[in-house]
Design a protein that fits this description.
The chain contains 1 helix and 17 strands. With 316 residues, the protein is mostly beta strands. A 14-stranded antiparallel barrel has the order 1-2-3-4-5-6-7-10-12-13-14-15-16-17. It has a two-stranded antiparallel sheet with strand order 8-9. The longest helix has 16 residues. The N and C termini lie far apart (44 Å).
């Protein structure tokens, strides 16, 4: 059993590292992306109209030792009628810290009105990426040996920048973004253009959704996310959520050819919201005895300028 688990972890690390061939490395994925939008689109900064602080933890393929885990922390706020600022930190880990990546970005948005309700925002982000590969944490490898002759990488820093646009009304939203434009190669060991340990590629995101007011106490929101990266299949996430009395949300999602998900959210107070999600793989991996699905927990705090004035929670 230990040998099987070890082989699976090594295979996961090697796929993500994607050396010897130009396999695309994708950004971390989230089931509750609709509550974590600034992580993929800087134009979202300040769009909620209040100071918003959100944290998310994702455990991928629970039960598989060394499976990926992701943590995010996002802070954004409007600083005037048109300008929004934000900060996003993402930590992605696999193989019990064998591969660890940390992204940190500052976001800026500028918003113009397009009508009585419509607002169009343009966003820019700039930051960096730290990559740490320590194959000594895998049984059977030494710190000096690495894997297939490649040495470990110790907190290598790579700068990057991204951009996005975001349009929304009281009921509709749509956004297009590229979080990272620079395609960084990490360690070209042989001096050739095709032999490297990992390569960051551009990820394109398209998000959209609409909120239907069924009645005074019930809202329905279908939403869609497309993610595209060269060298990998197109990812499509379709979700449908109900918001009941502005306090409780319940929904489901489908990641095309990948997973089925259940989502639930609680507006605990006017400021605090808690979200939970569970994914069940529809691939062969989902049928293995080593995988109990994937879990996410999300917590958001929002600070209103006037505590006496409670804003009806927006559904995006």
């Amino acid at each position: 059993m230990h040998n099987i688990m070890r082989k699976i972890i090594i295979a996961l690390v090697l796929v993500i590292a994607s050396f010897e061939v130009a396999i695309a490395q994708q950004d971390a994925q989230y089931t509750q992306y609709m509550y974590n939008t600034i992580a993929i689109n800087p134009a979202y900064a300040g769009s909620r109209g209040v100071l918003s602080i959100a944290a998310l933890h994702r455990s991928q393929w629970v039960g598989l030792d060394g499976a990926p885990t992701t943590q995010t922390l996002n802070i954004h706020t409007p600083t005037g009628q048109r300008v929004g600022l934000g900060l996003s930190i993402v930590n992605d880990e696999i193989g019990n810290a064998t591969s660890q990546e940390t992204y940190f970005d500052a976001a800026f948005s500028y918003t113009i009105s397009t009508g009585d309700q419509g607002k169009l925002s343009f966003g820019l982000k700039a930051g960096g990426h730290l990559l740490n590969l320590d194959f000594a944490k895998l049984a059977g490898f030494t710190e000096e040996q690495g894997v297939n002759g490649f040495p470990n990488i110790d907190k290598k820093f790579s700068p990057n920048f991204g951009a996005g646009i975001y349009y929304h009304t009281n009921h509709f939203y749509a956004g297009l973004s590229v979080p990272n434009f620079l395609q960084t190669k990490h360690f070209d060991g042989s001096g050739t253009s095709t032999s490297y340990l990992a390569k960051e590629r551009m990820n394109w995101y398209l998000i959209t959704g609409y909120v239907f007011d069924i009645n005074r106490n019930l809202k329905f929101k279908p939403a869609l996310l497309f993610k595209a990266v060269e060298g990998a299949p197109l990812q499509a996430d379709l979700s449908a959520n109900f918001l009941i009395s502005n306090k409780f949300s319940l929904g489901a999602a489908y990641r095309w050819d990948a997973a089925l998900s259940a989502l639930v959210g609680f507006q605990l107070t006017d400021q605090f919201m808690l979200g939970l999600a569970y994914d069940k793989e529809t691939t062969e991996l989902g049928n293995t005895a080593f995988n109990d699905g994937s879990f996410e927990i999300f917590l958001r705090y929002e600070l209103f300028n006037n505590p006496r004035r409670v804003i009806t929670p927006r559904f995006f």
